[in-house]
Design a protein that fits this description.
By secondary structure, this protein is of the alpha/beta class. It folds into two domains: 3-87 and 175-280, Alpha-Beta Barrel (TIM Barrel); 91-157, DNA polymerase, domain 1 (Orthogonal Bundle), CATH 1.10.150. 43% of the residues lie in helices and 16% in strands. It contains ten helices and seven strands. Strands 1-2-3-4-5-6-7 form a seven-stranded mixed sheet. Strand 5 (186-189), helix 8 (198-206) and strand 6 form a beta-alpha-beta unit.
Length: 281
């Protein structure tokens, strides 16, 4: 069984539609996927409907972007009730925060740098109702002639040292973990290697319902996988993994979805954890 539990679509910062994700997953031999768009779950029902007669299982998933002590901390969620009122409120607040941040940056870009872009030029880059974010802002700046490349836009304008950048007012990782857990979901610390305080933060988030660590990730070396697998075992957490697929590799055109070696038992443990949680409630 081939599994990829971390995939993005055009409803956040992915290049492919939910339908194309389904087709691509099947083409690369995947049996189970989770679509984990940033701060929204709109692609799930679309993918489920499209895949209903296809050999692919799709798990409900999400990736909530949070900030804690200056760190970007991403929380994955699996199997939560997508219609849970608190979960829906979390998603709505996250979307509003994204729009507010973007509008403030647009204003500062025009005022301080003379770069004029519109909210519409950013919104149209995602599927209707999808999550706008920094990649879309960077592309809009480049398209408007403000920079010669997306990378330059990040370096000059989309970082905490820029005089036009505004930090998003987002929830804490503890809030995200708790809401996902209370909605019947399995909260997982995504790509923890990105966070220097991952060990201590993991322990703190466990008090709010954290149930897993994403040890397998395309940015994690074998040594890092071993480190976080050991940490998960130490704390009694499950291990998850995924490619964090956004788009084909721009260097050689390869599809990287499903290319990570993710052991089959990871899916089995995820299912067991969901059963354990359901029995405990």
């Amino acid at each position: 069984m081939k599994v990829d539990l971390h995939i993005h679509t055009s409803y956040s910062d992915g290049a492919f539609s939910p339908e194309k994700i389904v087709d691509t997953a099947i083409d690369v031999g995947l049996d189970v996927i989770a679509i984990t768009d940033h701060d929204n779950v709109l692609s799930h029902n679309i993918a489920i409907e499209y895949a209903k007669d296809k050999p692919l299982k799709i798990l409900p998933g999400v990736e909530i972007n949070t900030i804690y002590k200056g760190y970007e901390v991403h929380i994955l969620g699996y199997f939560m009730d997508l219609n849970n009122s608190d979960f829906q409120k979390l998603i709505k607040n996250q979307q509003q925060a994204r729009v507010k941040q973007t509008k403030e940056i647009i204003t500062l870009l025009a005022k301080k740098e003379g770069i004029k872009i519109t909210l519409d030029s950013i919104v149209k880059q995602v599927a209707e109702g999808g999550s706008i974010g920094r990649p879309h802002l960077a592309k809009a700046i480049t398209n408007a002639g403000g920079t010669s490349s997306v990378i330059e836009a990040y370096n000059k304008y989309i970082n905490d040292d820029s005089n036009v950048y505004v930090q998003r007012k987002t929830v804490t990782p503890f809030d995200a973990v708790e809401v996902i857990y209370d909605a019947g979901g399995i909260p997982v610390f995504a790509h923890p290697f990105d966070v220097d305080i991952a060990d201590q933060l993991t322990k703190e988030m466990m008090n709010f319902g954290l149930r897993g660590l994403e040890a397998y990730h395309r940015k994690h070396s074998p040594a890092i996988i071993e480190y976080f697998s050991t940490l998960a075992e130490k704390y009694g957490l499950i291990i998850t993994g995924g490619s964090d697929f956004h788009a084909p590799n721009p260097v050689n055109g390869n599809i990287i979805m499903g290319k990570n070696f993710i052991p089959e038992w990871i899916y089995d443990e995820l299912i067991k954890e969901k059963r354990r949680m359901d029995l405990a409630k």
